[in-house]
TrEMBL record, chains A, B:
Domain EF-hand: 50-85
Organism: Hymenochirus boettgeri (Congo dwarf clawed frog)
SMART domains in the record: EFh, S_100
GO terms for MF: calcium ion binding; calcium-dependent protein binding
Repeat listed as a keyword: yes
InterPro entries from the UniProt entry: EF-hand-dom_pair, EF_Hand_1_Ca_BS, EF_hand_dom, S100/CaBP7/8-like_CS, S100_Ca-bd_sub
Protein known as: Protein S100
Keywords in alphabetical order: Calcium, Metal-binding, Repeat
Source taxon at top rank: Eukaryota
C-alpha cells in the first residue's frame, strides 16, 4: 500500500492529466484546461482573488518555455509555490501560538 | 470540503511536520528525522536504492543553506523532483501504449 506521501504525489500526477487530456496535446494544459483545473481544484484559492486577469497571469508565469501551454514540470512549480506559502502561514501561526503559551 | 489537490498539498505539510517536530528545531528535519521520513514514507523508493550513503547524499543535496538541517522549502524540492520523475515515467509508458494502439 502506498504511504500518504506517495499517494499525495500520485494525486498531483492524476489531477494534472485529468485536465491536460481533455483537448489538444494530452500531456499539456492549454489556457481553458488550466482555468478549469484552477476553478475546480483550487476553488478557495481563486475565491480570494479578485483579479479578472489572474488565469492569464498564472499561465504567463508558469509557461516558462513560451509555448502557450503548461506541462507537468511547469504545473508543479505552481503547486510547490502555493504549498510553501501555506506552510509559511502554518509555521507563523504555530510560532505565535508557541509564544502565547510561554 | 477541500479538493483532492488541496488535500495533497495539506498532506505534504503534515508529513514534514510529523517528522520535523520529533527533536531539535521543530520546523526542520535533522539527519535522523530525514532518514525516518524517507524510510517510512518513501519505502518503495528507498528499497530500489542500494547505496548505503544515500541518506547522507540526499541530506547534502537538499540542504541548500548548509545548516545540516532540511526546512520545508528544501524538502519540497525532493518531493517535486521525485514527482516529476514519476510523471516522466508515466508519460513515457502512456506514449508507448498510444503507439502500440495505432
Amino acid at each position: 500500500m502506498p504511504s500518504s506521501l506517495e499517494s499525495a504525489m500520485d494525486t498531483l500526477i492524476r489531477i494534472f492529466h485529468r485536465y491536460s487530456s481533455r483537448e489538444g496535446d494530452e500531456y499539456k494544459l492549454n489556457k481553458g484546461e488550466l482555468k478549469l483545473l484552477l476553478q475546480s481544484e483550487l476553488t478557495d484559492f481563486l475565491a480570494c482573488q479578485k483579479d479578472p486577469q489572474l488565469v492569464d497571469k498564472i499561465m504567463k508565469d508558469l509557461d516558462s518555455n513560451k509555448d502557450n501551454e503548461v506541462d507537468f514540470n511547469e504545473f508543479v512549480v505552481l503547486v510547490t509555490a502555493l504549498t510553501v506559502a501555506c506552510n509559511d502561514f502554518f509555521e507563523e501561526q504555530q510560532r505565535k501560538k508557541g509564544k502565547k503559551g510561554k
